[in-house]
Amino acid sequence: MKQNYFLLLCFLVLFSCKNDEKIEGVEVESSLVNFNIDAVPYSKLSTYSFFKGDLKNLEPSAKVIPYEPASALFTDYALKKRFIWMPNGVKSTYDADNKTLNFPVGTVLIKNFYYNTIQPGNTTKIVETRLMIKKASGWTFAEYLWNDAQTEAELVTGSDFTSGSSKHLTFRKENNDVMTIDYRIPSEAECFACHKLENKPVPIGVKPQNMNTAYNYPNGLKNQLQNLVDEGYLQSFPSNIVSTVNYKDTSKPLDLRLRSYLDINCAHCHQENARCDYRAIRLSFSQTTSLSNIGVCLVADEPIDQSLQRIITPSNPAKSVMHFRLSSVDESSRMPLLGRTIVHDEGVELLKQWINTINQNCP
After folding, report:
1. Are 292 and 166 found together in one domain?
2. Can you say whether residue 159 is alpha, beta or left, with left for phi > 0 and alpha for psi between -120 and 50 degrees?
């Protein structure tokens, strides 16, 4: 009996020391996220162990959950891979369709910005990874800049995070246009400017209205909110969420596409107690059922000239301030002011199409 017990003990010890073993074809995940809330942000992205294998593959470790909002924020045509991680034993809660999930202390939101058509050769290059970390005092930002070898991303600190920086890139768009840009690495103040609500930093995209969509997980399609429930990251959510849509999906109504685009690209500033709350327009998805909130027939706070007075002039994009600002790259007039250095042609075209459908006589 003692001999059998000893053999069993040896077997268990030997088994527990092996990494990436398989039991009947099922891979056993042995790596764990390394997270000490009193020590973060770490100087290197790899220290967290959010990703397994080669860091550049962004293959998530166990309980690092991918997500994607219905419509994505435009950032000079950068692609994004987003993830959520939470410590054991805590869950987020639902507050409202249009409010960020109420995340517990210890939550980390991970957002990687990359291009897969870098010239020459259409190679893939990850430029930056942004973390938002929920501490007891609130959300904090951590910006990581990837090296050219794509082996590590280093924490941006000191004057580089105070003033921001740029990365010179040449990439090919989906329409085969080749673009050369100075991609902007944001400063801490720029991060706060977009993520500010009631003078506190908050996430933007992780709202139920934006995540009430299906995502193609390794095990198949599933609603993202339901997946968070199944993973133990969300208590529950209602079945009647009024949701945004993918603005690229031409099968959806034009007004829903335009409102979804404005919500993810503009509403974080153009809402009460945010950066541009002094402006007349309100561009949150829940508020743009009203044409006046989008600016139809509304005289702009800062008209451009005599021909550009109204924010939206019905059936006339050329005389609409919003169309002008989305088409501009001048820092003194472009909108959004931060997050882009070039024109989002598809977004401008979407706005143009929508304006041309508005038939209304302005007073």
Report:
1. no
2. alpha
